[in-house]
Structure formats: structure tokens, C-alpha cells
Design a protein that fits this description.
This protein folds into 5 domains: 59 residues, Phosphatidylinositol 3-kinase Catalytic Subunit, Chain A, domain 1 (Ubiquitin-like (UB roll)); 56 residues, Ubiquitin-like (UB roll); 54 residues; 70 residues, Resuscitation-promoting factor rpfb fold (Single Sheet), CATH 2.20.230; 84 residues, Lysozyme (Orthogonal Bundle). It contains 7 helices and 22 strands. It is of the alpha+beta class and 420 residues long. A 4-stranded mixed beta sheet has the order 5-4-8-7.
Length: 420
């Protein structure tokens, strides 16, 4: 491509035999005469013709132009177009309508391998942009493998797309805005680390020199929503071969109060009778706020917990379990006042003196016709009728002492024989 200044306009005051004349915006040559040459006859005298229209005609033409453009002049037909010629930008004023007219006005002649956009025949409007690029040689050493490229670009960054290199995917020895001179440019490049983005089950691979996870997402062309869950988080540093996972949100986060159930701890107490339980501290449930989000995971809608905040701590309960073992009295040993009473008389009345007796109505057993519950309350085990006569008598005396001598509550019909 040849760049040069605008051609010098021919004089309108002098006119040689080969000098063209301008007509409108075009340069028109003079029409030759019948005998050829420059239209002049050596013998015939030609009448001078004026190129200036009569005053009334000129006035009418000017009036028509003014009416058409609203009072403007012929300069209103001139337009300004932005021209970028191999990175050199300028404003070109032209009366022409096409890209080619702009190139002509700027004195630019396209070479065989030059490219221009839009194409030369394209009609332009004021403010349009015309770009011209000449071929340049670009040598790239990519990971130790050198290749030569012919590009139509003014800068290195502009050329990367033409040779199929992602600007985000390589580290270059020169800046993207480095100018490619006419004699070419040589650069070295290394591929950026490989990254993987998993948008639920959709996998995207990219190479980027970005510093953060957000840069990796951008390089992969993955846009995340306000509530999408990104792991690692977007502001975390990017690392080679890392995998970034995105769980798409299916709505907004929701917060609810959840009860924290209190636990109860048991503790042995040697001062309590064995098996006895005593509540020391009642358990009190706590309360927490749990924030969750419905997300898409492996193609299914699931609930993902975002955060948990304890509002009220639970209070742990405490129960003491007795371990004290009480010695059982000797069944044959009388106890207190009861030992001096007539127990054989009572037994004769209740069961006929039969230690294995069972009441025909059921529910009462042995010499003294114990019910199972009463028998157990004084330490007996099994059925009273299965115990020895001595143990039955000892348990009966213990029961007498337990009720404070109120024999009527236990043996209302036969108890009177205790005093025979």
C-alpha cells in the first residue's frame, strides 16, 4: 500500500492543450475538435465561451441550494470519515460517497495484498470508520515451536485472533499493544495453565493467565447469577489445573428457625439407693437460624445449607442414678414392735397356715395373702407363695412397720388376730 498526500489540483487560470477541466467533483478533459488535436483549428477563429453562467442563472442555482440545505453552502456536501491506516488514525474530508473516494482523498493506493473494510464500493456516511491493513510477517515461538504467519494487523493483540491464539490463553513476551512494523515482528509465547469449570454437569475447559477464580469463569465464558454457589469462591486465587464448580441457584436463600434439642447426661450417685433416678437439671432446648438455598446438583433440585446461626444455646440436662446397695434384713429376724405380735394367728386366718396358698379369686399369695405389688414394695421378688415361710413372715413384719402399725389397711378382717 502506498501512502501519499492529496494530488495537487490543476490551475483554473491557465489551461494547456492537455490540461483537464473540473466539472462538479470530477475532472473532465476538453472535447477534441473535429480534426483531432486539442480542438482548435489553425485557420478557423473560435469564439471564446464563458465558463461562468449568467448572473440570473447563478442566483437561481444558489437559491435552490440554499433552499435545499436550509441556508448552507456547497461545503455542506463534504463529509468527515475516520480512517485507520495500519494503526495511524486520521480524519479525512471528502466530497465522495464511497470508501474508494475516501482512499483517493487520503492519497492511499491499495497494494495487491492489502485489505480494506468496508469494501471500496461501500457507500459511507459522515462519521463512518474505514480500516486499511497491509500484510505483516509475525513469527511466534509457542512453547518452543516456531511458526511464521502473515497477518493483516497493526498490533500484536489484533493479530492473535487471526492466528487462532486466545489472548487469555497465552503469556506473551511483548504487550498486546506492541506495533507490528513493516519488516515484521517476532514474539515468544507460552500457553496459560489449563482450567476446568463445571456448571453443574456442563464441563468447560479454558486456558487463562487470570489471577482469580472470577478470571477463570470469565475466560470460560461462564456467567454466574447472584445466588449461584461457586467453589472456590470468585475472589480466591486461581491455580494451574484447578476445577471450579458452580451450583446454579433455583431461587433466593430462605432462613428458618430450627430447634436444637438438648441432651441429658446421666451421672451415678452413691448416696442414692440403687436404681433410683433424681433429676438435677431439666434440659432446655435451644434455637438456631438456618439459611438454605435450592440448587441444581447433578441435574436434580436439592437443598443446600448456606449458613447456621445459634440464637439460643441449649441447656444440658442432668440425671443422677443411685448406686447405693441396701442390705436386706435376715428373713428370720424380727423387726421392732412387729416381732412380738401373733403372726401365726394372722397366717392361720388369711391362708390356713399354707405358705403356698393362692387366693381362689386370684391376685393374693402365701401365708399373709400379699398382692404382687405389695410384696415388691417391701423388697420381695417373684411371687410371695414361692418364698420361704420365714421370708414371708419377715416381709409381713416389715410391711407392718412401713404402714406404722396400721394393720387395718393391710389385713382388715384377720389383722385382729395379731393381738391374740
Amino acid at each position: 500500500m502506498t501512502l501519499f498526500g492529496a494530488p495537487e489540483r490543476p490551475s483554473t487560470t491557465e489551461n494547456s492543450t492537455n490540461q483537464p477541466l473540473k466539472k462538479g467533483s470530477e475532472v473532465m478533459p476538453r472535447k477534441p475538435g473535429k480534426n483531432g488535436g486539442n480542438g482548435r483549428s489553425g485557420r478557423r477563429r473560435r469564439r471564446r465561451v464563458s465558463l461562468v453562467p449568467p448572473l440570473p442563472v447563478m442566483a437561481a442555482a444558489v437559491a435552490a441550494v440554499l433552499a435545499t440545505v436550509g441556508g448552507g453552502t456547497a461545503l455542506a456536501m463534504e463529509k468527515t470519515v475516520l480512517l485507520d491506516a495500519n494503526g495511524e488514525e486520521s480524519e479525512v474530508r471528502t466530497f465522495g460517497d464511497s470508501v474508494q473516494d475516501v482512499l483517493d482523498s487520503a492519497g492511499i493506493e491499495l497494494g495487491e495484498h492489502d485489505v480494506v473494510a468496508p469494501s471500496p464500493g461501500t457507500t459511507l456516511s459522515a462519521g463512518d470508520h474505514v480500516v486499511v491493513r497491509s500484510p505483516r510477517e509475525l513469527t511466534v515461538d509457542l512453547d518452543g515451536h516456531e511458526r511464521d504467519h502473515r497477518v493483516h494487523a497493526a498490533t500484536l493483540g489484533e493479530a492473535l485472533g487471526q492466528i487462532g491464539l486466545d489472548p487469555e490463553g497465552v503469556e506473551l513476551s511483548q504487550a498486546h499493544d506492541a506495533v507490528i512494523p513493516e519488516d515484521g515482528l517476532a514474539v515468544s509465547a507460552e500457553r496459560a495453565p489449563r482450567m476446568v469449570v463445571m456448571y453443574d454437569t456442563v464441563r468447560s475447559e479454558t486456558r487463562t493467565t487470570g489471577a482469580t477464580v472470577a478470571d477463570v469463569l470469565s475466560a470460560a465464558g461462564v456467567e454466574t447469577g447472584e445466588h449461584d454457589i461457586v467453589s472456590p469462591e470468585p475472589d480466591e486465587p486461581a491455580e494451574p489445573d484447578m476445577v471450579v464448580r458452580v451450583l446454579p441457584a433455583l431461587g433466593a436463600p430462605e432462613t428458618e428457625e430450627v430447634v436444637i434439642e438438648a441432651e441429658t447426661v446421666e451421672r451415678e450417685n452413691p448416696d442414692l439407693p440403687e436404681g433410683e433416678r433424681e433429676v438435677v437439671t431439666e434440659p432446655e432446648d435451644g434455637l438456631k437460624e438456618v439459611t438454605t438455598l435450592r440448587v441444581l446438583r447433578h441435574g436434580e433440585e436439592v437443598e443446600h445449607e448456606l449458613s447456621e446461626k445459634v440464637v439460643t444455646e441449649p441447656v444440658e440436662g442432668l440425671v443422677e442414678i443411685g448406686t447405693k446397695v441396701e442390705e436386706e434384713p435376715d428373713p428370720g429376724e424380727a423387726s421392732g414392735e412387729a416381732s412380738g405380735l401373733n403372726w401365726s394367728g394372722l397366717a392361720q386366718c388369711e391362708s390356713g397356715g399354707n405358705a403356698s396358698a393362692v387366693n381362689s379369686a386370684g391376685g393374693y399369695y402365701g401365708l399373709y395373702q400379699f398382692s404382687p405389688s405389695t410384696w415388691a414394695s417391701v423388697g420381695g421378688s417373684g411371687l410371695p407363695s414361692e418364698a420361704s415361710p420365714a421370708e414371708q413372715t419377715q416381709r409381713a413384719q416389715q410391711l407392718y412397720d412401713t404402714v406404722g402399725g396400721n394393720w387395718q389397711s393391710q389385713w382388715p378382717h384377720c389383722g385382729v388376730h395379731l393381738f391374740d
